[in-house]
Amino acid sequence: MMKLSSFCLFLTLTLLHRVFTISQIVEATEVALTPPRGWNSYDSFCWTISEEEFLQNAVLVDKLLRPSGYEYVVVDYLWYRRLVPGAYVDSLGFDVIDAWGRMIPDPVRWPSARDGKGFTEVAKIVHMMGLKFGIHIMRGISTQAVNANTPILDIRTGKAYEESGRKWYAKDIGMKERACKWMKNGFMSVDTKLGAGRAFLRSLYQQYADWGVDYVKHDCVFGDDLDISEIRVASKFWRERNSSIIYSLSPGTGVTPTMAKEINNLVNMYRITGDDWDLWQDVASHFDISRDFAAAHMTGAKALSGKSWPDLDMLPLGWLTDPGVNHGPYRNCKLSLNEQKTQMTLWSMARSPLMFGGDMRSIDKSTIRIIAHPVLSEINSFSSNNKQFPYITSQSSSQIKYKGLNFQTRSLKNVGRSGSIGLRLTSCKDASAKGWFTRYLNNEPEQVCWKGHVGSKYQAPFCLNKRGAFSTSGEQMTFKRRYQHHFYLFAENTRKLCLSASQNRRLTSKEISRISFSPCRPHTNQLWSFDENGTLVSSYSGLCASMSKIKDNVVPMGTRSWISTGRKGEIFLALFNLNPDETTISVKMSDLSKGLPYSNWTISSCGAYEIWRDKYYGIIKKTLSVAVETHGCALFVLRCI
Ligand SMILES: *[C@@H]1O[C@H](CO)[C@@H](O)[C@H](O)[C@H]1NC(C)=O
Ligand SMILES: *[C@@H]1O[C@H](CO)[C@@H](O)[C@H](O)[C@H]1NC(C)=O
Ligand SMILES: *[C@@H]1O[C@H](CO)[C@@H](O)[C@H](O)[C@H]1NC(C)=O
């Protein structure tokens, strides 16, 4: 009897355990298990898209791209801005906001948003098509809401947020000195140390959830514009609700794997470059950074309710517009067909999210063939062990030296003398950020100096003069309170120019983010603090300054190769030619296993099929060689024994 009942108990417990395990799996929504794929309005409409244009695009995404896994349709920035004379990407006062200071879609551009419906109707239609709906949001709160000093909604009560016996308003939480650096009139951080600040952010996220949003692209909180506390509030919000929302960060100017490791488990995707446009330099600038993220095992790392993916940005192919303009598509993609294939091949081999940016209403067969290629879809979703493969040799057809594009760099006056050495931002955990010390010289202001030699070893150390945060007039009390121990830094001969952490405009991916001087003003972008471990911390982003070699104006050249393995035991091998002339790239079959995780596999021969040329190269026993056109690539599916 005893035996039987304990057996029953054991059985019941086992079953209960099973049931519990299963229900847990059902409840904890896992998202982004493969790199998310979809369409985004930015490359073809900048900010100007209307409901009609958006839904026309969605219908075509559903028809033409959904079979290839493109499922998110995303409205990019400023959907709340009225498209009227005077409005532009950094205008102030043209946004439609509700009584709680929250952005709502401009009802002229988005008619279904009338009567406070927001994006509910658009999301419904998108869901009926079987697609998922995404929106872009900026950091914190809008300047317009702060100027209007709107009350803050408490989502728990549905009433104005009260704490310490008083109501709280937009002016209490908005941090003007932390305005988004590249959209200075638009948005600023909110103080997440305040209950009211967090309540405001939650009121935004609740609204997006109520609308039925499946994907949030959060802008001006990452890269040089890091606002880690807001990322934490957002991530916590989605996680506590077991939300299936994809949480994406953009852009990623100056991002390194060390910096990304501070956020990658809080999000599902994060940009690792500035904006990618349809220029060869933009495409080429993604090779080294994606190599570094693959080597750091960041691809598909465990993250917010699923996985996270380093994001190389949208695919600007097809029918496009330009950054920052007030109009929609009017021109074709400037990349050659080979360059487009190279972009798609790198993005797939690096397992970047794939977001097509061209106007679907004008898409042509050649673009569809590139972005919906079944082998690339398979590689992007399901290949593993993806990484750069260095064991190749190459011979270019001539030795022309390519003069890189001279994009403008505003480098430091003082540092300019040391040529390729510059200041950049990095994670404060990065050992390379350690190296600052302070010193007093007779009758001189206190200085902050870099300990290493930045130029010739006979040069004096690189130093900047310190000045307290409050010597300029007109600063607010809250500003003083918050930044007591912070200071400005200026070069000896330029007292009016202060060291500034990030740029005034959005950078594209070919540009190098660097620190520069600009006229002094009370913004955290120019405030710094000194940590005892020798780090110099930006008050804007919490990132640290570091002196290092900066390669200016260099368009990457040479050849590259990536390897990965498929679900059916095949090997994918991509060969890229970044040279300005045709180059023959060769790989020895016996070297392939060096790129694979199993070193016990001695490869003797491989059947080689190249997908872009749709050509079978036969059984290769020794060396696979292929002539690759300038900026082009070859992508082989190898079946080896
Ligand atoms: C989220 O899922 C967990 C179990 O995984 C569950 O305990 C919790 O109640 C869920 N929360 C909500 C808001 O559904
Ligand atoms: C320096 O100290 C800060 C805390 O004061 C810490 O967060 C940071 O990781 C340290 N950096 C290094 C490189 O040791
Ligand atoms: C190589 O080793 C792995 C495990 O380490 C094993 O699964 C695989 O079958 C081996 N392959 C060969 C060709 O021996």
From TrEMBL:
The reactions it catalyses are:
Hydrolysis of terminal, non-reducing alpha-D-galactose residues in alpha-D-galactosides, including galactose oligosaccharides, galactomannans and galactolipids
Q: Which CDD domains match?
A: GH27
Which GO molecular function, any one, fits this protein according to its record?
Answer: polysaccharide binding
Regions annotated as coiled coil: none
The signal sequence is: 1-21
- UniProt EC number: 3.2.1.22
Q: Which GO terms describe its biological process?
A: arabinogalactan protein metabolic process; carbohydrate metabolic process
Limits of the Alpha galactosidase C-terminal domain = 561-638
Q: Which Pfam families match?
A: Melibiase_2, Melibiase_C
- Which keywords fit this entry according to its UniProt record? Disulfide bond, Glycosidase, Hydrolase, Signal
Domain of life where this protein originates? Eukaryota
- Entry annotated with the keyword Hydrolase: yes
Similarity annotation: Belongs to the glycosyl hydrolase 27 family.
User: PANTHER family recorded for this chain?
Assistant: ALPHA-GALACTOSIDASE (PTHR11452:SF42), ALPHA-GALACTOSIDASE/ALPHA-N-ACETYLGALACTOSAMINIDASE (PTHR11452)
Record's protein name: Alpha-galactosidase
Name the source organism.
Daucus carota subsp. sativus (Carrot)
Its lineage opens with: Eukaryota, Viridiplantae, Streptophyta, Embryophyta, Tracheophyta
